[in-house]
User: Fold these one by one.
Assistant:
Number 1:
Amino acid sequence: MLEHVVLGLWRKIHRTGRVAEPAPPPPGGDRSPAAAALGGSVQVRHVDAGSCNGCEVEIGSAFGPVYDAERYGARLVASPRHADALLVTGPVTRNMTEPLRRTYDAVPGPKLVVAVGDCARNCGAFAGAYGVTGAVSDVLPVDVEITGCPPRPEAIVEGLRKLTGR
């Protein structure tokens, strides 16, 4: 009985095929020389420099099955030594300033930095807080900024597509 159900489900899957939204047009504008050197693929290391975790939820969605940032050549990696780019969220706190610099130094060149969310761009709601050093651009050179509090997964994928060119 169970085999019959599974076989029927398999046949339906085979007849239907792959169902996905069509990809939006490729991002416009000039790519930085460092992004062009990546050859359409980017390995990304995420760093939380002091965020409220709203951006992390959206990053999880951007790399999940619905938005699937991997189909555009962006892949999360566990080590900065394997990364081409840093995806930084939150304002840079005093306790994360030096670890963020060390993480950036561990990324082999050419390396890129993506500031995700308003807090990473300009400290957002945390501007002027006693424990905040500043925005990501105050600590590292930023190549791409993604706006929003938190940014929508579509915006994160669009920002990553600017790096991959796909």
Number 2:
Amino acid sequence: MTQPNSGVTSQVVNAHACPVREVLDRVAGKWSVQILVAASRGPIRFTELERGIEGISRRMLTLTLRNLERDGLVTRTVYPTVPPRVEYELTPVALELHETLQRLTDWAGHHRHYIAQSRAVYDAEHQPELLDA
């Protein structure tokens, strides 16, 4: 027997989820995670980030850093030298996020064999379907 509709519409759910989804999309993005990890050990320069994050373009690094700064996760400090020296550092909120990312990474490392084994079993059971797809 099904439960009666509780009056919760998809619009209500989406209205509450939208801000959370927006934040998760930003902080869980491929480049954001790598920047947060790279900057977790202290202030870091743009060129260090660029060299340390494989595959990121200068433009994508610039855009991602601006978005992280806008979100209050990264601070940008410009030193009055010639040429100007710019450093990026995680805010306390981003350091807290980094701890969460580290726990997620630890979980993934701990369970990677289980997941690989589960994938192999699934693939073996569904091989004809996978070949037809």
Number 3:
Amino acid sequence: MAKAFKYGLKGITGYLEPAERELLRSLFDDVISMLEPAEAASQDPLAALVGLDSEAREPSDRAVRRLLPNVSRDDDEASLEFRRYTERSLRENKIGALKAASLGLDKDELVLTAADARHWSTALNDVRLVLAERLDIRDDADAEHVHRMQDWSQAEDVESYLALVYNFTTWLQESLVQAMLASLEA
């Protein structure tokens, strides 16, 4: 069974069982595949250097839109222009954090540096955003409904299984953030 992240003499540490590590690795890989662009970025070397993507469009998948939201709700044109200048680097940063967190899953005991902890926090947050979108969590009542699912033996369908995974990643992220805060206070 997983043990919460804690801050101590070795830094931020946590413990995950092999099945929990495989679950997280799978979740990280799923989000990476969602974030990888369907098309190659512009072949223009200058555009690639500065991160421009003239082909960027608002994602059709709601979960990807949650990860890469529009900058403005009222101005589609401004959102699209902003997306063309920022989306490529945002995708790359998110994928980098997910891959970095995934690399740490080779051992039962996790020992995180400050940079590792930031990657883990970003990766867990992105996984939770995708799961929240798949579970249609829109308000506190929806979140409370999902939070009630605590027993793995009760998982009878995809939604209840996703709720349990969401609750697990929420708990893990909360313990990580608390450990990160403790490290700042030390």
Number 4:
Amino acid sequence: MTTTLASAVKPRAEDSFAISFAPLSLEEIYAKSDDPANGAVVIMSGVVRNQTDGKPVIALEYQAYEPMALRIFYQIAADIRLSISDVNRVVIHHRTGRLQVGEISVLVAVGCPHRSEAFEACQYAIDTLKHNAPIWKKEHWEDGSSCWVNIGACETSGENC
């Protein structure tokens, strides 16, 4: 699967994409990804953890360039459908603002007739989102220090500031 933004991709009515300041709901995301033709719904929930590389984290703060992030989300869904023809639903919601340890920062859900395709599509969606979407996080550490990092940069380099 390849993500390109050469042309504007329109979201499908049955899919759901959002950047939200409000808390994310697993129940809402499941409902949005459910379809009578599904044999599987795979949901990936990204949660704020209490450490990064052994350094105690007390909170994360997310910011996004929403218009471009949503275009990336639409493109992810289009790419999934190009490689997996029987995807019924794609749902991608991401939080912004300050989140405490244990809060959900991102939910990705894919509904398909079969589980293997649902798992593959869900993994592609979160991996591509983390590398391509203009979303940044600021890690707030227990010692009072903090640092802004690009999510994709964190994943590829494994480094903090």
